[in-house]
Amino acid sequence: DFQLDADLTQALNSLSRQQGVTLYMTLLTAFKALLYRYTGQSDIIVGSPFANRNATDTEQLIGFLVNTLVLRTQVTGELKVRELLNRVRKVTSGAYANSNLPFEQLIQELQPERDLSYSPFFQAMFALQKQLPSTQSAAGLSWEIGAAGDLGCSMFDLTLDLVETSTGIEGHFEYNSDLFDRDTIVRMASNWQTLLAGIVANPEQTIDRLPLLAEAEKQALIDWNQTAGSQYKGIQQLFEAQA
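Predicted structure:
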């Protein structure tokens, strides 16, 4: 679990308005940029849940109508942040326009190579939702929203689940512990927040030059790479000693 403070959340909202995208698209762009920087792969595919209540006929209908969208974006290090934002906007808008196609039907039509060890099409999930009041009422009924239960397993290799609250954005990483350990995910959460701050500071920056390491991590690397003078010798000195 982690939290983005109110100042960073406000800056992200402001950037989104300036670039003509939603907060969701900006946060998704940052997540795709992080995955690109971690993996070096340019074909970044992320799954995302969609409420599927974009028609008046389903607005008041009780039931689970959520569909999974597959969001595919080509990411390169030379792209500027605003250019990647534009790509993500187009991909997301296109997915929204075709959101009625069930994910299961997509699998049936495309027949991807299946492996029971991972989900087809994507292995990383991204979600953003607004925090609802804990107690609600309608039509004479009242109810409370309970805490999400722990499934005891991860449905995907990696899931970034975000909730927009009045004090900022609360985040939660769910991960496959066969692939990641807790320290790796803690660093990933820190790297993502540093990348977000870099995006806000300079949307003209290229993806490969966005900062990932916090100051403490940078200093740790500097300390680790420092040598103690004569204790370490270069290749030339080692060769001379042998000669």
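Summary: The chain has a mean pLDDT of 87.
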